Amino acid sequence: MTTIAQTNPLGILRRAAAAALAAGMALFASACGTMNMGEIVAPTPPAIGLYELRIYTPAPGKAEALDARFRNHTIGLFEKHGMTPVGFWHVATPAGAAKDERLFYLMGYKDRAARDASWAAFAQDPEWRQVYADSQKDGSLTAQGGIENIFLNPTDYSPKLNLTASATPRYWELRTYTANPGKLENVHNRFRNHTMGIFSRLGMTNFLYFRPVADQPAQTDKMVYIMAYPTSAARTTMWQAFSKDEEWVKVRTESEAAGPLLKTPGGVVSVQLTPADYSPIK
Questions:
Q1: What is the pTM of this model?
Q2: pLDDT at 270 (0 to 100)
Q3: How far apart are CA 271 and CA 281, in angstroms?
Q4: Is 100 within the bounds of a domain?
């Protein structure tokens, strides 16, 4: 006697759903295999051809109010007008030294024309005008002559701007080198071909490297760069290791066979920095 199997519609639906779920999970797992799920994905960096380093010296007793204005208003208005705020830093004053209350911050723009147009629009923005008036009613937040700025172009060997958030705030350093006459390109070549690699090997972070824009006489023969370290103590340890590194000692000796590349004294100016709580990059 022949037995005819009966079809169970509910069983078929269940098996089809299970197969679809399995296929979906397999596709998800395959996609996850191409990325680190714990990694913070960096935003796409904007097209920046010009940077501006701005240094503000607060009026006495106005440092916190200046920070508050940036935190609560100014940064948002910068972004509204197409500017890219990169980093805001306070000076890390050594123990026992008089407090240095200067605020350093770095802005990015497509080019000089875009920068000038953005700042003109910012200056005329009704919201900014109200914020400025309200914040200045008890006196200026900056000292007289307390705003400086330097225009900078990224070098050909500078890392690309990386705005990835750091899990913990890092320790930063702004370094400005002044080369002896005719030696600036030798300095750049040494960084391009050797120094940056040694820094990386020792655990330092090469953030951005710059050439000051040429129409600034006070910046003649200078290069500017920004470094990051895990902590202040790590910075000290890393620079001590760098000064004794065999590769660096050899590179320095060979590159200075015809004389020092940097002016002495004053050829290296270092400002150690800590990020403000409202800084986009930390």
A1: 0.83
A2: 97
A3: 17
A4: yes
Whose CA is closest to 165, among 282, 87, 278, 76? Answer: 282
Q: Is 185 within a domain? A: yes
Q: Could you tell me if 110 and 47 are in contact, meaning their C-beta atoms sit under 8 angstroms apart? A: yes
State the residue range of the domain holding 142.
Answer: 50-275
**Which residue's entry shows tokens 């000064």?**
243
Greater confidence (99 vs 16) lies with 99
Six-digit token string for 32: 């996850």
- Residue pair 84/108 in contact (Cβ under 8 Å)? The answer is yes
- 138 φ/ψ angles, rounded to the nearest 5 degrees: -105, 20
Q: Give the side-chain half-sphere CA count within 13 A for 212.
A: 20
125 lies in a domain? Answer: yes
CA angle 53, 177, 83 (to 5 degrees): 15
CATH of the domain at 183: 3.30.70.100
Residue type at 77?
A: L
pLDDT digit string (tens) for 118-174?
Answer: 999 999 999 999 999 999 999 999 999 999 999 999 999 999 999 987 889 999 999
Q: Give which of 155, 197, 158, 182 is closest to 262, Cα–Cα.
A: 182
- The first and second tokens of residue 75, run together, are 């940064």
Q: Rounded CA gap, 70 and 76, in Å? A: 8
